Amino acid sequence: MTEPPDRDSLVAFFDRWTDLVRAVDFDTARAMFDPDLVAFGTFADFITERDAVIAGQWRQVWPTIADYRFRTEAMHCDVSPDRLMATVAVPWSSTGFREDGRPFERNGRATVTLRRDGLAGPWRGVHTHLSLNRGTPDRSFGRPTALA
């Protein structure tokens, strides 16, 4: 399979998003997504508008997990002929915590649609669908205080 010419910039987008999830930095991550973002996720079956996605999905998950990472080495991407839109499928991994504080593998996959205004412009997420792998608990209770 031939790599699309924009793979490096797409990897950079997901690496940056990884860093922001780990830092629980909603404000910086917000700028990476379109105001009309549409998302599907663990806590939101169907949610529209970036701020609603942040409130209804990101704030429910990011503070409760550890070690989040998009596994870009396994990423598949399809870039439009004009190179202004891309669809990316990428697995991710993280650590979740049971109610008693025991960690568990909390892994899944994402499909993300991105677009940009010009070839030199930044990618912006316009649709995200993050889902857990089958059999993975859908709730993480956060790191035990001793580990935080």
What does this structure look like?
Strand 1 and strand 2 form a beta hairpin. Strands 1, 2, 3, 4, 5, 6, 7 and 8 form an eight-stranded mixed sheet that branches. It is globular, with a radius of gyration of 15 Å. It has a single domain, classed as Nuclear Transport Factor 2, Chain: A. The protein is built from three helices and eight strands; from the N terminus they run ααββαββββββ. Helix content is 23%, strand content 35%. The termini are far apart. It is an alpha+beta fold and 148 residues long. The longest helix has 17 residues. The mean pLDDT is 92.
**How is the main sheet built?**
8 strands, mixed
CATH class categorisation: Alpha Beta
- The class by helix and strand makeup works out as alpha+beta
- Tell me which CATH architecture applies here: Roll
CATH topology descriptor: Nuclear Transport Factor 2, Chain: A
Strand content: 35-45%
Gist?
The chain is 23% helix and 35% strand. The protein is α+β, with helices and mostly antiparallel strands.
Topology, pairings included?
Layout: H1 7-23, H2 26-30, E1 33-40, E2 47-48, H3 50-61, E3 66-70, E4 76-79, E5 85-97, E6 103-105, E7 108-115, E8 124-132
Parallel strand pairs: 1-8
Antiparallel strand pairs: 1-2, 3-5, 4-5, 5-6, 5-7, 7-8
